[in-house]
Design brief:
78 residues; alpha+beta; two-stranded antiparallel sheet; 2 helices; 27% helix
Length: 78
């Protein structure tokens, strides 16, 4: 997954006083709760203790194919 690749690459930099916490909608509830417990905040994306947010440039967009009549959620660059 691209999100994890970004987190792994950033962790390899061994940045001082920095913890890399990937956060995205398909993360399990337990993993999301772990993150919000670490930052001691409510489940909101407006979190005072977060200093930087890195957007990987990808999004899951709902697409409907009239040809196959199937709804899908591909990951696409934005």
């Amino acid at each position: 997954m691209r999100f994890w690749n970004t987190a792994k690459a950033l962790n390899k930099l061994n940045l001082k006083h920095t913890e890399i916490l990937p956060l995205f909608v398909r993360l399990s509830n337990s993993e999301q709760n772990r993150i919000f417990n670490i930052i001691q905040a409510e489940t909101s994306l407006t979190v005072p203790s977060i200093k930087y947010v890195i957007d990987t440039g990808y999004v899951r967009i709902s697409r409907y194919s009239y040809h196959t009549k199937v709804q899908r959620l591909p990951i696409e660059p934005i």
